[in-house]
Structure formats: structure tokens, C-alpha cells
Structure to design on (469 residues):
């Protein structure tokens, strides 16, 4: 039966912990029990660190009781995509290549979350090395979508999306090279933030693309993403992309007021450049109406065709991923899954000219978007133009052939937030994306939070087996 602990957000749980109405141990134990009940059908977790989590929760409770409250993540459970290094706990990237790999150090982001007092519940399913999937020839099965277990979660942060949507954990960490935070956020009906490149450290995270990889939070609400980002953001000399700059109060930026803000709608991404499901298109139009009703000034804008972003993103990601895995692919090709090999091997035949030209085009696209954003506070577009696909329909598809909308914001490097903007008649979630200026993550979340507050979508949860009548 459903209880009041099943779907607590970070903000709700933190308030109860601080007021001593909720024990971190009780919350953690409840979620461990929930994972035991739901994970056999959803496959979101590859490893549950129950004993470790209860120990951390107990220490958090004792610290809070002694008056040493660290902030809104203190005693709050979270989980990690299985590419984040965890000291003494296996990190495998869902690949036979890393079977038995146990890091000696936590990733920088994991250290930051632990320093904030958060409680690690376990490691989450991912596509192999955060690239190809869903796959059925890996050490564990692919995650299933809580809204319809016959459907795909999106990837590669597949377990991260499923775990939050199903209420197994209030917050997770995903990673994003071409949409791997925002696609599962869209298909699973949650909020997912790709922060500005350089804002959150990637040190200690299994790499896919040196240029495009980004680490970020996934949670039920934009507010929870803001609370996570507050702990995660900051300079790290171990990440060459990291930028040293002041970190604002992200939660304080969630004022609910967006009157007078200028929003540029990149309509051609879903109306011209892609074939879009009618339910998605209708939800996007309705969302634009809500933002306008909140006082924002909404105007269509035109960027380069989506294919320009997609080709640049594909060449950079494929070339760099192949460079990372080249030696192991040569000597242990059969230890990789078929889907991963299919996606990465074209990188072996890309030439230096292709790679350099893709980097040059990326610079031009960044300049183009920066120029447009001089006249707008944020950009609005679709997250994905299609509904969550059926798992049975998924096959080997080149990342270039997929031409996702999400990759455009990996190319530009600015923040991009995916959030739920409705449901189909049969209950599948729909999603919109808000993109912003570099390091203006607070503005993107401000608009997203205002939209959530003006709509009813955050009150709807999947109907799960064993989750009530």
C-alpha cells in the first residue's frame, strides 16, 4: 500500500528531517524495502548498498540530533548512475570490461554529496559506458519505464530516470553527452538538468567524450534539482573543463515570478527538423501558453537546422569515445555489448579532418546561440519528439540516425532542463526543454519551477504493481 514516504521529494523530506518529524534511518529503510519490491520488475538498481546506507543514515540522524545540521541534503537518500566511482563499491559502467572494478576513491561529485550529508542507496542501471542501449547482452538487464514496463526509459541514465519516477529514491545522478539526462527525464516524466559545462566536476566518472560529457541531477521537481546542484557546483582542479566562478543560491532563484522574461521558442526543431507525435506537439503549444500566461514574452526564433548540431555532436562524441576505448576494443571486443560496438566503431574510421571540422562547427554553433540569447533570457523547445518507445521495437540504431534534439545543448554547452509538460490519454509522460546562457542555470530553473507551480503534472505518479489498489 502507498504510504506518505513513497514519493517524498528532497524538499519535503528535508523539511521533515530538520523538524525531527522524520528520521533519516526510517526514510532510508522504507526506500530499501520499496526497492526490494519494485526493482525486480523495473531493473533500475544494479546494486543496493543497504548496510552502507543505513550506517550513513544513522550518522546523519545523530549529527542532526546534536545540532549539526548541514543543510537540505542532510540525511536525504540518493543513488548514482553506475559510472560514478564509489570508494569500496563496484563501478562497472554496465560492462563486462569493468567486471569486478572497485574504485579506491569517490568521484568528486560523490564526495560533494556525502559532504552535504546525503545517503547513498546504491548504483543504477546505465547503457554500457553511457552510450549504446537498451541492450540485452550486458551483465544486467535494461531498466524498464515505470509508466509502462513494456516501454523504454530513454538513456543512458536509464536507471536514474526509472528510480526517481517510481519513488525508489528522491534524487539520482545522471550524465549527459548527447541527451542522456534529458531523454530519460522525458520518458520517465521527471526533471533532469544538464548543467553548464564546467559547473559540475566530471572527475572520477567513467568518460565517454572529453568535450561533451556533463554530470547533473535528476529528480521529481525542479526545486529538487536546484537543491542537488547547490551541493554539486564548484571548481575542481582535477577536471580540466572545470571553471572557477561564484556559485549563486539556486533555491533562492526559484521565485515563481517570470513576468517580463523573454523566451525564444525554437519551434522548427520539432515542427520542421523532426517528425513529432501530435500529443507532444499539443503539449508544447499548451506549455507555451502557460508561460505566456505567467507574464513571459514568448517569441519564435530560428537557429541552424538540427542536423548541423547533430552531425557535430555525433562526430565529436564518436571519435572521442573510440579514442577512450580503442585499446580495449582491439584486444577484448567481445567483452563489449553489440549495441555499444555498433555505435562506437565508426569512430575508428573518422579522420582528423572530420574531427577538427566538427570542433570548428561546434564553435560556430555556440557563437550563433550566444548571439540569439543576447535578446532572450532562455530558449524553449521539445525534449524528444516521440513517445517512450516499446522495448520490443528498439534495435541497433546509429546515434547519427537518431538526430536527437537534446544534443544541440551538449554542443552549445549551456544549461538545459527537461521537465514534464503533460501526459498522453493513456498516461505516458511528455516533456519540454528550457535552455539558457552559460552559467545561468538559475534562470533556467526559475522558469521551470514557475511552470511546475502553474500546472498539475507533479501531482501525478505511475500506477505500480504493489503500490496501492
Amino acid at each position: 500500500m502507498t504510504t506518505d514516504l513513497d514519493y517524498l521529494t528532497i524538499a519535503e523530506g528535508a523539511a521533515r528531517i530538520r523538524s525531527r518529524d522524520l528520521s533519516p534511518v526510517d526514510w532510508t529503510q522504507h526506500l530499501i524495502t520499496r526497492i526490494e519490491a519494485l526493482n525486480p520488475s523495473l531493473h533500475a538498481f544494479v546494486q543496493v548498498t543497504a548496510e552502507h546506507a543505513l550506517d550513513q543514515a544513522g550518522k546523519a540522524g545523530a549529527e542532526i540530533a546534536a545540532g549539526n545540521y548541514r543543510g537540505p541534503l542532510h540525511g536525504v537518500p540518493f543513488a548514482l548512475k553506475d559510472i560514478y566511482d564509489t570508494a569500496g563499491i563496484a563501478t562497472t559502467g554496465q560492462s563486462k570490461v569493468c567486471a569486478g572494478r572497485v574504485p579506491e576513491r569517490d568521484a568528486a561529485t560523490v564526495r560533494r554529496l556525502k559532504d552535504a550529508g546525503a545517503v547513498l542507496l546504491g548504483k543504477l542501471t546505465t547503457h554500457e559506458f553511457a552510450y549504446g542501449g537498451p541492450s540485452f547482452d550486458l551483465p544486467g538487464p535494461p531498466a524498464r519505464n515505470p509508466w509502462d514496463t513494456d516501454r523504454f526509459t530513454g538513456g543512458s541514465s536509464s536507471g536514474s530516470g526509472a528510480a526517481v519516477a517510481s519513488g525508489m529514491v528522491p534524487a539520482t545522478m545522471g550524465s549527459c553527452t548527447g541527451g542522456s539526462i534529458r531523454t530519460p527525464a522525458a520518458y520517465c516524466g521527471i526533471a533532469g538538468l544538464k548543467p553548464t559545462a564546467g559547473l559540475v566536476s566530471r572527475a572520477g566518472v567513467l568518460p565517454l567524450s572529453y568535450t561533451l560529457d556533463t554530470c547533473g541531477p535528476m529528480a521529481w521537481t525542479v526545486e529538487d534539482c536546484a537543491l542537488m546542484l547547490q551541493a554539486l557546483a564548484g571548481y575542481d582542479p582535477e577536471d580540466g573543463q572545470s571553471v572557477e566562478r561564484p556559485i549563486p543560491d539556486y533555491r533562492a532563484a526559484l521565485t515563481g515570478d517570470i513576468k517580463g522574461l523573454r523566451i525564444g521558442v525554437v519551434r522548427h526543431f520539432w515542427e520542421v527538423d523532426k517528425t513529432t507525435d501530435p500529443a507532444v506537439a499539443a503539449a508544447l503549444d499548451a506549455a507555451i501558453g502557460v508561460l505566456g500566461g505567467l507574464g513571459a514574452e514568448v517569441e519564435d526564433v530560428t537557429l541552424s537546422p538540427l542536423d548541423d548540431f547533430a552531425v557535430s555532436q555525433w562526430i565529436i562524441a564518436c571519435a572521442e569515445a573510440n579514442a577512450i576505448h580503442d585499446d580495449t576494443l582491439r584486444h577484448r571486443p567481445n567483452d563489449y555489448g553489440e549495441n555499444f560496438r555498433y555505435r562506437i566503431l565508426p569512430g575508428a574510421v573518422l579522420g582528423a579532418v572530420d574531427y577538427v571540422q566538427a570542433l570548428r562547427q561546434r564553435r560556430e554553433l555556440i557563437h550563433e546561440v550566444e548571439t540569439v540569447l543576447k535578446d532572450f533570457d532562455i530558449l524553449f523547445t521539445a525534449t524528444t519528439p516521440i513517445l517512450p518507445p516499446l522495448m520490443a521495437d528498439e534495435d541497433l540504431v546509429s546515434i547519427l540516425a537518431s538526430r536527437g534534439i537534446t544534443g544541440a545543448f551538449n554542443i552549445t554547452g549551456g544549461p538545459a532542463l527537461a521537465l514534464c509538460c503533460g501526459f498522453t490519454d493513456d498516461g505516458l509522460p511528455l516533456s519540454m526543454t528550457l535552455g539558457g546562457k552559460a552559467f545561468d542555470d538559475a534562470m533556467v530553473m526559475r522558469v521551470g519551477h514557475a511552470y511546475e507551480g502553474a500546472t498539475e503534472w507533479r501531482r501525478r505518479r505511475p500506477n505500480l504493481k504493489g503500490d496501492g489498489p
User: Anything to note?
Assistant: The chain is about 40% helix and 15% strand. The longest strand covers residues 416-423. The longest helix spans residues 306-331. The two ends are 7 Å apart (CA to CA).
